[in-house]
Fold each of these.
Amino acid sequence: MTNRKAFTLLEVLISIALMGIVIVALFSSVDMMQDSNQQLAQYLEKSKKTTNITKVLYMDMIDSDGNITITKDEFSRVCIGETRNSLYALPSAKVCWIVLKKENTLARIEGNGYHLPLRLEERVEIDPVMTAIEVFDLYHEKDKILVLIQQQGKEPISFMLQGIVKPEKKKAPIDKNATTIPPTPL
């Protein structure tokens, strides 16, 4: 009786045990890959958000008229007098980037002809951009602007813009036909 056509019970049990060990190893490796993919997706989402924020700030400045005011008081802020980069379809907008005290939130304020602090009748759009800001600083010298942003516990973001020139103050035109009256002595 050397002619066998079936497995013994012991062989079937051993193969089931080995298959169970292999399946457990496969499921744990699949679970680790899913966790890794989720972490990568979260990192990419944060990176994309940071990239979009810096892109908007960059475009606000590059499309500006050069009238950029940097104020370093209790609120670090940058106001761009007029920019063509509007998120709300304005032909030209005044944009301010300001660090609010609540959670050190970096916010972008867009509108027309408003003043800080805002008055009740002024209509603006305020977009909270980042929280936990440790550093929001800009340096403007001649035609260069250096931007530094750092969130708590994260790598700093920095970039430089060139070619942003402050507009020259226009002098009143001299009227050649006007007559001048000499000052009278006292």
Amino acid sequence: MVFSSTIFLCGFLPLVVFLYYGIPAKFRNGFLLLASLFFYGWGEPVYLSIMAFSTVFDYVNGRLIEHYKEKQRRGAAKGILVLSIVGNIGILCFFKYTDFLIASINRFTGGDVSLLNLALPIGISFYTFQTMSYTIDVYRGNVKAQHNIISFGMYVTLFPQLIAGPIVRYTQISKEVEKRGTSFDICAQGIQRFIIGLAKKVLLANQIGVLWAQIQTVQENEMSVALAWLGAASYTLQIYFDFSGYSDMAIGLGKIFGFHFPENFSYPYESQSITEFWRRWHMTLGTWFREYLYIPLGGNRKGRVRHIINLFVVWFLTGLWHGAGWNFILWGLYYFIFLVAEKLFLLKFLDKTHPIVRHVYTMFVVISGWVIFSNEKMQEIFKFWKGMFGAGVPLINDLAIYELLSYGILLAVLIIGTTSIPKRLGEKLRNQLGDWVIAVYTVVLLLLCMAFLISGTYNPFLYFRF
């Protein structure tokens, strides 16, 4: 089940909200657990057992870590923590990377080992990181272990952020797991945020995704510089509105049920360096890697060489986390190179240039990087890069002109939508005309989304496969 589907919008969500507020508060965690399991099992009931195991496994680990720490048996507590980390990473690697590893070995050795053809459980990368952060934080003493398995299970399976984040650490919502309140205003804010995210997905990401799908299949002899950049830009816009739209919807749903999830995006395409870009893009993932990998490895505190090695490890794993493919590893190392260059010398140079120059540089790197991310085959990556840099292709051709004329207005809307301009304009209108303007705007967006969904087809989020 996906948020941008009629079954969710017209059936599941209204029923869950109605029942949630109709039952006593002490039963709400259990109800959300059941609703979340139903939500996840709607599409993949076979993988409920994996999620159930992860939940029980880390619930027990958290209790044991707390127990041994209270008994001042820190070695035993550390052993349980290692067991938790190894177990979680083992499950993730088995389902996500086994076939990739077998295929890579076959390719490099000429072997013929059969693939296991394992289907990737949706959301496993996200909820695995959440449960690992829980046991780590219990060990560090940042949070007390949750003694109620129903409440812990609700945290792990919570459907608003289960599939594609934000990555919500237990420390961030531990108090709300125990007790949370809401109000009409907070609930209204949640509904508004959800609908804005829905509109990003349905009205923007899905529409520009059509252009990307068309250009992605263009043969090399039909490519031009303009068409290659148009394709790369269309994917750049699609993945932003798709993923930030999901995050908006998750944050909005969280508010409806009394949770305050962390922000995941802060206008990343306004950045003026790659360092700044990664402070604004998928912020909960960046925070996770910083808190649980980069800093424990030593961060930048142990000399330049160790600092570079730590960055390499983080960005290699960041790429691998996104998918079982060499293109994802290449994408992670691609950003490692630019981030190291900025830390060593490039930022000092960029600081002396005009903000427009810094922004152009950043978007050039980001757009080129999305070409790696979006194409699993190296020949497809090189096809686009050759086109983007004019290697043996014309500057522009008839297909590029046709696509520009067809999608020019949408592209302009999308580009403006990646900036803070719409938010500032909305706040100005609200201050001048009142909240009713935003209410009308939100209802119109919802009606437009429903019209597109009723006439459309299945439209999963891009990050479902990561």
Amino acid sequence: MAAFTRLTYHQRVHNNLLSSLTGPAAARPRTFATTRIRMSLQESAPSLAVVGVTGAVGQEFLSVLSDRDFPYCSIKMLASKRSAGKHITFQGRDYVVEELTPDAFQGVDIALFSAGGSISKEFGPIAVGKGSIVVDNSSAFRMDENVPLVIPEVNPEAMSGIKVGKGKGALIANPNCSTIICLMAATPLHQHAKVVRMVVSTYQAASGAGAAAMEELVLQTREVLEGKPPTCNIFNQQYAFNLFSHNAPVLSNGYNEEEMKLVNETRKIWNNNDVKVTATCIRVPVMRAHAESVNLQFEKPLDEERAKDILKNAPGVVVIDDRAANRFPTPLEVSNKDDVAVGRIRRDVSQDGDTGLDIFVCGDQIRKGAALNAVQIAEMLL
């Protein structure tokens, strides 16, 4: 079957920016080009709804669904009232975006949510009450002890027993993007030697703050190069040619919410409240894909060569670790890719023996950090 053809998000953002400078684009329908109409529509397949379909992750949901030939008998495109009425062409068919209302989930088997925490809190339980299985990309339910927090390659057992066709709704939470990217690499090593302490420093792209932030980074870059003051609508300081502490609210303990997500979500996913986790999250002027420096302390010895072998065989992970050529993972080479890349695999010389490792991880925040992980969860429901 022909591969799904689509613009990269970089290209879509660039085109949207050009459109905003040359004329109105509101009337133009969003189009997912295909070389051939794919045969995902199946009468016996589940019915889908994509909530927040006009956002960056919502659009990526559609890309991933098409890339993976996810089977469905029908699909609803749902968004806010201001987006209702827009047209989206998906797999050769035209869809009109519907306003998100409580009645929208009637007959929906799987609902993929990416419209923000407040929307999820309001409409997630409504969808579940109507029999839908909700896969939620927000932070609304992640730390609810009754809601599974799932990375399919890491803890699929957490959603055991939840399946389409049982006539019962359920909530499943997608972890935070930085947590997913980190644990895709750390978990295979943890399963072998047990991590007792993890120190994470993140370098997070504009994509984590949505399409508007990506567009502002492009605009600011142009403005700064032209000697103009940068437009600062999304962040309260210059982003182009700069970096700063993650913009999440800072808590009373001095950590921001993004950093505490890494702490708390890791413990829940690993089902281990004793593991020590600390994080520093930084926003960097990269368009798409997060990078993370991860320091691991193990209960049992694990040398770097064995660690490299473990990572080479881990699902969803690719090793890029060429010391001679100084070639290691970069955000650019994982953008629009499914796999998380790992490199800089080396013994922590500050620890005795082989009980510590440093690794460097890069992953596409919109794809594996959000949409792909959610669709993989949906695949496990079939």
Amino acid sequence: MQKQITSKLSRCLPGLVPAMLYLLFFITLLTVIIVSSNISYHYITFTTTTTTKTTPHSIVLPYSLHNQVTHLQTQLGILLQQLHTENQDPKGFAKFADQVLGIAVSVEKLVDNLSHFYGDPPLYGKEISNVDEDFSESSDAEVEDGLLGNRVFNSGELKNYTSPKPNRQSGKKNFLGVEAVYPSIGLACAGVASNVDRFMDHKVYRMCPDDWDVAQKLMASGCDPLPRRRCFSKSPQHYSKPLPINSSLWNTPSDTNILWTHYKCKDYSCLVSNDGKRGFFKCTDCFEISKRGWEISSNKSISAEFTIDEVLRLKPDEIRIGLDFSPTAGTFAAIMREKNVTIASATLNLGAPFSEVIALRGLLPLYISIGSRLPFFDNTLDIVHSTLFLDGWIGLELLQYILFDWDRVLRPKGILWVDRFFCSKEDMKLYLDEFTKMGYKKLLWRVVPKTDKMGDELFFSAVLEKPLRG
């Protein structure tokens, strides 16, 4: 069919092609005007309350549609330029016909995607639970590559995933320093293109810029994984060999093995200083190399914690490998190593050299953002542990995506250990419901008052067993 159309078009292209191109350009331009006057670029936003009414003002255009419009404009510009430079031969006009048809198909796709926002039935005007909305039955219509390689995603669940996940308290920054978490799929890089260019502005086979802080900002903004670079990373000027494994776990790492350029502290003693103006401001005891933080009270009415031995006894000789997703310098992993359990510690360098210290202790640092899919295969880990991480800042939808990814990498009958999750009393039930909906067996479960503030918060800890499914 397309060949027949192309053949017919080639006979009348001298007058038809320019008209079609200008018509398509007008349609695209009109689409851009409509889009820009009604909705903002970047993403679709969904509120995270359990029952809410959405309005047209809460809809934000995804990057994929923004990119469609941009690519269409670029393609039209290229074709218009070619019309002025190419000779008027039939083969050339046949090529133009194919390209015009491709743009027409792309415009149709764009209109179809926009209809999801403004068509019937509308997304807004209905009372729905946006957190629990099921997008799994979205249309799986064929998706074609555009002339310049852009691809349009039709999956409703993917659109839901790529939307920013705002913090529970709107407008307040979390411990990552952002007001929303941007799930990683690469689309977010288009919104921070200047910083990506800055990150990739280096000379090949030369020293890389000292710009890991820029890279981490990109990761926290959802631009992850980052592009590879062909340059060499800088080494500490007075680097010394690490301590032997039998002594590195519980000794203070050498200052000389850390590049301190982008940290407030410039030596290790500063990290553990009690002087708030001088020390590490986010966590006063994160870098204390001791087991003191795991000296847990046995009083169940006041302590939200479980001991490591208590948890390991639940699965004798079954816990061998796992993940700790926490703001950590590796102490949990160090204790587990002494018990012959290998733990990868997932963290970012949030104002201090977390990754470097973990590595200098002879442990495994996993440098990964909260919005990234874990780099483990399905059903492979024995345990996933998290402490002081999934707290009351987190939106319910983001919590779902995290829990399901942890569930994916845990093996059947594996252990999910949530340690000292805290939030306001009024929000606790909402969060507990999210854990309950996973269908895990409750091995240990405890909710106690959090007494270090105004008394309006609770601690929650649980050890849960993943069920067999399918």
